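User: Can you predict the 3D structure for this chain?
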Amino acid sequence: MSETSPAPGGPSIDEQSITAAVDAALAAIAAAPDTAALKQVRIEHVGDASVLTSANRAIKDLPKDQKAAAGKLVGQGKGRVQKELAARQAELAAAEEEAALAAETVDMTRRRTVGRAAPRTRCGPSPSGSRTSSSGSAGRSPRAPRRSPPG
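Assistant: Here is the predicted structure, written as structure tokens:
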């Protein structure tokens, strides 16, 4: 398609300029390190002020015989960018979710190093000797006072 400019100062709708805009968008998509950067790339390359969107808007000012070809060219370029954006978004979101899960993982096999250990229960021999005595106080704690038998 030959270069057409719908209005003075308007975006040029020719294969070379659309291909350059698509290539720049694809390079920026591939270079985005995270979803926040990809959102900015989306705004710059397919947002309201982008070259592709401006070219799409300018199609209405073209002569009738050029509208179909220009629409096809811009539509295919924008579609390719949108497809790559969606694929990269899924890729980055999965990587960010995996990183978040890895950061939240707790190793239950490691010993606790913070705080104090739980108090020991009294199920072993008392510090003063045997827990059972000959007077039959086996069920009582070693610190419990002995009661004298009635009578």
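Residues 1-9 have pLDDT under 50 and may be disordered. The CA atoms of residues 22 and 77 lie 6 Å apart.
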